[in-house]
Amino acid sequence: MKIGVNKNIDKARKIINKYLPGKKIKVQEEGLGNIKFFTLVENKILPKKEYNLDIPNIIMDIIFNIYFIDIINKKVYKERKDINNSEKDEITRLSVELLLDENNFFLEKEQLYSQIKEYLLESPIIYIDGFIKFRIKELELLMDMVIDRGVEEFALEKEYKEFIKILQYFVEVQEPKYDLINIIFEDNDYLLLDEEDNILEKDFFKEIVEEIEPGGISKDDLLISTLIVLAPNKIFIHLDEIYENKEIVKIISSVFQDKVYFCFGCPKCIGKTKIKRGK
Hints:
Blueprint: E1 2-5, H1 9-19, E2 25-32, E3 35-42, H2 55-79, H3 85-100, H4 106-122, E4 125-127, H5 128-134, H6 136-173, E5 180-186, E6 189-194, E7 198-199, H7 202-212, H8 219-230, E8 234-238, H9 247-256, E9 260-263, E10 276-277
Parallel strand pairs: 1-4, 5-8, 7-10, 8-9
Antiparallel strand pairs: 1-3, 2-3, 5-6
């Protein structure tokens, strides 16, 4: 089996070697102009069942990580003329991330996998650039889907950043009412404690927030609003690692930035702190 690549040779070499099961298969390289051919040679001594080398997946990995990045970038720059270059670069980055996520575009990837497999049944040599150009119309649909998702993701991230900036502004104009506040996450809820472990009643802040924004408020919105009202100089977040990537934790970190500290093992984290109700 020969795989021909005409760009980013070093990266292609790393991708191929990643799939090799130890030294059971050797890779021989030969150049033809600007094309590098990687020949995969099986060790005849070992039983064939021990190889389990998925050639179509190797080729897909090279296509996605080398060729499609350039295709997406050129397509974004050509078709999205209403946005500046830095935004185009960000859309390209997000689109590539979405494409490489194994949970996205599953059916389209399965179809490409089948096409590669059929091609390899007819020929032991594949020149990837030629394979892509021969099927570019079929791949256009996948590229359009990927870029559309990238644009959507970019719009959401842009809105999120603007939202964070607004919250940061509110924090800056508030006078700090506490030097330190502890947040303890537990059982899909949270507790707020001051530095002497006095509990801060959430209902009081809920009433204030609902006066500003009638119609109910979620726990996460209430927590953010409460922290903005209190504007502490330091926030200690005590949580189990399963809560570390919760969206509310990310928002608090983004809004309060260097005021936020994380703790994963003190008595508060494991529920052994004696909490005082009221001051």
